[in-house]
Structure formats: structure tokens, C-alpha cells
Automatic annotation (TrEMBL), chain A:
Pfam families: Ribosomal_L28e
Family according to the record: Belongs to the eukaryotic ribosomal protein eL28 family.
GO CC entries: ribonucleoprotein complex; ribosome
Protein name, as recorded: Ribosomal eL28/Mak16 domain-containing protein
Organism: Paramecium pentaurelia
GO biological process, one term: translation
Alphabetically ordered keywords of this record: Ribonucleoprotein, Ribosomal protein
Domain Ribosomal eL28/Mak16, first and last residues per copy: 5-129
GO molecular function, one term: structural constituent of ribosome
Domain of life: Eukaryota
InterPro entries: Ribosomal_eL28, Ribosomal_eL28/Mak16
UniProtKB/TrEMBL annotation, chain B:
Organism: Paramecium pentaurelia
This protein's name: Large ribosomal subunit protein uL4
One term of GO molecular function: structural constituent of ribosome
Keyword field contains Nucleotidyltransferase: no
GO biological process, one term: translation
Similarity annotation: Belongs to the universal ribosomal protein uL4 family.
Pfam families: Ribos_L4_asso_C, Ribosomal_L4
């Protein structure tokens, strides 16, 4: 479905829309800027990557997930069903480092949507930094407890 | 038109198994999305479930109140007749009065229902069905469909024979629809307002809509106790269920026979509907709505002239070149060099004069030298004054110590 048409339907009201203090914001997981605009609203586009922080399992080093608009396993297996749309949330856990995740982002957006790519990367970096702080604190706390 | 999208029918027992591969999508799903039609039809159709109510026609009027007229230093509103009670002499009848009747009291014969043209209703229903097949719209409506294998979700007819609610629940879990049900459960709220005393205690969200075909289907009973889930027959698709609140994109689970029936129900672009007599699906104004793709296509780009460079005649706001160096440079390109030259000249001038660093010792020495000189000068002046005195005494017979006049 064309992104333009979908935008006309969705811009006035959607489940992710948050209007606060005169700002029009979005909780869309595919939106890496947080502000609802045509280009940043990822859930209406065909190709989007969302950088999402999750309260993940204890083993997960980074509580970051990448949410991609990928075809589900079923659709990938079924070649002819390419015409049907992908349901969202193929989530990739960003386990070890940010580099593979950033590669995924760069591949997704390529050279065409540089602004979106940068927004995604920016968010990834910020989340990673925040996680590093959290992890450091956790380790310190664990050490203190051991003592 | 490009190839028709294909849809797979899933096995009821196993969400990874497919019982029928590559069924073409019914034409309804290709209908243009018309939120304006849906919104209009929904607001009117939503009024049709209303029950008449009215205010008691005698309310506030059961008095023999009369206006006292003028000249009694009171407002001219009708006042309750009689005496012996507080109520007597109080204002009555008016909408502004306490215990008075309301203005324009509601009558039972208010026009509660709206009729909408059949064609509009059908177009709205078709659009709503189309919207259920578009993932972003279903997401935008707020359904949790991240684990659903395919949208539109078509399942084999086996679910129509479900009798137990556990079967229904397990089915929903298998197909990732349970997340939506959980959403409904967790967001059940006690309603604000008086309605909670009038039988509408809770506000419950809408979950998945299950659409079946065979009339003897037992799944109604299996699904009806699952919160948020609604069950409906294809032949009785309701806009109020397909687009609740006028918002497109309900999450719908179709049975195979229901899905197959849609072509007969709504017709296709090749033939009009059999059931909705003579109904033809809406045709889109633009067959390819992807503007970006059209603009970037070879056919368009070949014909398109190269982009014009915008010629800026002058800046929007006039900047003072005497204060704004960039504005000055624009007017006089040599100004930059002039400024640089001026700076260089100043630098050249001050090159010879080195700042003397006066340290304390030096200062002390110079001060000592000065004092010495001053002292020596003092001595000299003293000596000179004395000499003058002596001369005056010697040659002009000025007495010693006498005051010097002149």
C-alpha cells in the first residue's frame, strides 16, 4: 500500500500518536525520532528499522532490540507470497556490540534514506551508551554485594 | 495491474502448516481506502441503535404559577401561587429557574435514526474490509499483531466446529492473536460517569473479529466468552464491527469459506455482486498511488526538464553592510582584502614597540634613581635660595630674618 495514501489515513489518528504540550509525538517502534512526521513514521513504510529498548532477559547484555519490517519466516519460505505484506516485528536482539546492528541499519536504508538511517544509528548509539552505564552500575552493585 | 496478491490458508491446528496455498485475494481487498465514506456512514449508522428517551413532559410545569407582572419590584418570571410554604412566590416554569422545566424538552419523536444510501453503506463496508488486509492500518488501530503469520489471516473451516472455549483460546495463541486478547483484558476499565450505574460498568477494547460462513457453526459459543473477540457471519458483516469508532483496520480472522464468499458478496471488478444486487466495487481514482515511484520512474524522468536553480534576486531582509561583514563582502568583494590589510598594518606598526616588562627590581632601581636626582635637585634649589638671601643681605641691607616684601 502506498505510503502516501496510508499517511493520509493515519496522520490524523493512530494508536501511536501522542499529543502533548503542543507536540505531536509518536510511540511507533519504527519511529526513531519520536516525532510523528511523514518520513519518520516507519510503520507505514515498506522498509523500516526500529531501535527499541526492551526489558530483556538477564543474559542479554544490551537491552536493545531491532525491529525490522521483514517478512515473517513463513513468508520467506513461501516465495510466491512475496506480494503479501510483511507483518512487523522481526526482532533482532542486539547482543554483542553495536556494529552488527549498525550494519543492519545501514543495509536497510542504503543510500536513499540517509536521514532515517542517521536517526536510527543515533538512537542505537544512545541506547548503547545508556546500557553501558546501567551495566557498569550493575556490575559495581554485584561486586559490592559479593563483598 | 500487477499480479494479484496471493494468500495462504492456514491449518487450524498448526500455524506453520498451510492447507491451501496461494488463493488469490478477493477483489474487495483492492478497494480504495476511503476513510471519508467510512467516517460518514459510521457516524450515521451508529445512531441506529439508540432507544428513544424523553423527559417527562410535565416536568417542571406542574404548577399554577403566574407572573406577578410589573410594579412589585420582582422579575417578571411566573411565580408559584398560594401561600404557606417556601415554594410560594418562587420562580417557576422557566429553563433558568430552579425546579423549572428544561428548555426545549426532549421529545420521544426526536429523529433518532439515520438512513444512509445503500450504495454508501456498501462502499463503506467494502473499504473497511479492504483495510483489514492492510498491516499498517491494523497496527494504527492499535491491534497487537506482531506475531500473526499473515494478514489477512485465513484459517481452514475447522475452527467453525470449535465448541470449547479452551479450543478457541489455544487457537488464538497459536496464531499470535492472543496478544490482542491480552491487551483487551489488561485495559478493561471501570467507566467514568453515570453509565456505570446503568448497566455499562466497564469499558472494554475490541479484540479480533472472527468471520465465519456456515450457519450451523458452533464457534460462536466457543469464542463468545473470550474478552474482546467478536464473531460474525460473512453475510452479516457490520461496519460498526469492521471499523469500530469509524477507525479503519480491525484485526479480522477469516475462515476459508468466509474468505471465498467475499467475491460473491462484494463482486469483483469484472462482474457486479451477485448478492448485493448490481453493486459494483469502487474504482480508484489512481491505480498506482505510489507517487514517489511514479515520479522516480524512467518514463517520467525521461520527459522531465532538468531542475531549475532558484534565482535569488535579493535577500529577504536587508542587512546593514557597515555592520554585517558578509553583506559588505557581497557588495564590495574587495572589502575583505581591505580589512585584512588594515589588520596587517596595525600589526606592522606595533611591531617595533615592545612592551617593557617592568619588574619590581627595575621599578625600585628607577625610583631610587629618580629620588636621587630629585634629592640632588632639592639640594641645588636650597643652595640657590640661600645664595639669593645672602646677596640680598649683603648688598641691599635687608635685615636678616626680615620679611621679604616685593
Amino acid at each position: 500500500m502506498s505510503q502516501q495514501v496510508l499517511w493520509e489515513v493515519v496522520k490524523g489518528n493512530n494508536a501511536f500518536l501522542v499529543k502533548r504540550n503542543g507536540l505531536t509525538l509518536s510511540t511507533d517502534p519504527f519511529n526513531n525520532t519520536g516525532v510523528q512526521t511523514y518520513s519518520s513514521t516507519g510503520f507505514i513504510s515498506k522498509n523500516a528499522v526500529g531501535v527499541v529498548s526492551t526489558s530483556g532477559k538477564v543474559n542479554q547484555i544490551n537491552n536493545i532490540n531491532l525491529v525490522t519490517k521483514k517478512s515473517t519466516k513463513f513468508q520467506q519460505a513461501d516465495r510466491k507470497a512475496k506480494n503479501t505484506q510483511s507483518v512487523y516485528a522481526s526482532t533482532l536482539a542486539v547482543k554483542h556490540g553495536v556494529h552488527t546492528a549498525s550494519r543492519v541499519i545501514r543495509k536497510r536504508f542504503g543510500t536513499s534514506r540517509v536521514g532515517l538511517q542517521r536517526a536510527a544509528l543515533r538512537k542505537l548509539v544512545k541506547l548503547n551508551r545508556a546500557n553501558a552505564v546501567r551495566r557498569r552500575n550493575e556490575l559495581a552493585a554485584a561486586k559490592a554485594q559479593k563483598k | 495491474m500487477t499480479s494479484v496478491p496471493l494468500v495462504s490458508v492456514f491449518s487450524a491446528d498448526d500455524s506453520s502448516k498451510v492447507t491451501a496455498k496461494h488463493i488469490p485475494l478477493p477483489a474487495v481487498f483492492q478497494t480504495p481506502i476511503r476513510p471519508d465514506i467510512v467516517s460518514f456512514v459510521h457516524t450515521n449508522i451508529a445512531k441506529n441503535r439508540r432507544q428513544a428517551h424523553a423527559v417527562n413532559p410535565q416536568a417542571g410545569m406542574q404548577h399554577s404559577a403566574e407572573s406577578w407582572g410589573t410594579g412589585r419590584a420582582v422579575a417578571r418570571i411566573p411565580r408559584v401561587s398560594g401561600s404557606g410554604t417556601h415554594r410560594s412566590g418562587q420562580a417557576a416554569f422557566g429553563n433558568q429557574c430552579r425546579k423549572g422545566r428544561m428548555s426545549l424538552p426532549i421529545k420521544v419523536w426526536r429523529r433518532w435514526h439515520r438512513r444512509v444510501n445503500i450504495k454508501q453503506k456498501r462502499h463503506a463496508a467494502a473499504t473497511a474490509v479492504a483495510a483489514t488486509g492492510i498491516v499498517p492500518l491494523v497496527l494504527a488501530r492499535g491491534h497487537r499483531i506482531s506475531q500473526v503469520p499473515q494478514i489477512p489471516l485465513v484459517v481452514e473451516d475447522k475452527i467453525e466446529s470449535y465448541e470449547k472455549t479452551t479450543d478457541a483460546l489455544n487457537f488464538l495463541k497459536r496464531f499470535g492473536a492472543f496478544e490482542d486478547v491480552q491487551k483487551v483484558v489488561s485495559t478493561k476499565v471501570v467507566r467514568a460517569g453515570i453509565s456505570k450505574q446503568r448497566g455499562k460498568k466497564y469499558r472494554v477494547r475490541k479484540g479480533p473479529l472472527v468471520v465465519y460462513f456456515n450457519e450451523n457453526a458452533k464457534l460462536l459459543k466457543a469464542f463468545r466468552n473470550v474478552p474482546g473477540v467478536e464473531v460474525v457471519n460473512v453475510t452479516r458483516l457490520n461496519l460498526l464491527q469492521l471499523a469500530p469508532g469509524g477507525q479503519l483496520g480491525r484485526f479480522v480472522i477469516w475462515t476459508q469459506s468466509a474468505f471465498a464468499h467475499l467475491d460473491k458478496l462484494f463482486g469483483t471488478y469484472r462482474y457486479t455482486s451477485i448478492i448485493k444486487d448490481g453493486y459494483q466495487l469502487l474504482r480508484p481514482l489512481i491505480t498506482n498511488p505510489d507517487l514517489a515511484r511514479i515520479i522516480n520512474s524512467n518514463q517520467v524522468q525521461e520527459k522531465v526538464q532538468p531542475a531549475k536553480t532558484t534565482k535569488v534576486l535579493h535577500e529577504v531582509q536587508k542587512k546593514n553592510p557597515l555592520k554585517n561583514t558578509k553583506a559588505m563582502d557581497r557588495l564590495n568583494p574587495y572589502a575583505k582584502k581591505q580589512r585584512a590589510a588594515a589588520v596587517a598594518a596595525i600589526k606592522a606598526n606595533t611591531k617595533g614597540t615592545k612592551k617593557i616588562k617592568k619588574n619590581k627590581a627595575l621599578k625600585k632601581a628607577s625610583r631610587a634613581a629618580y629620588n636621587k636626582v630629585a634629592a640632588s635637585l632639592n639640594d641645588a634649589t636650597k643652595a640657590a635660595v640661600q645664595e639669593e638671601q645672602d646677596i640680598k643681605v649683603k648688598y641691599f641691607s635687608v635685615q636678616k630674618g626680615a620679611a621679604q616684601t616685593e
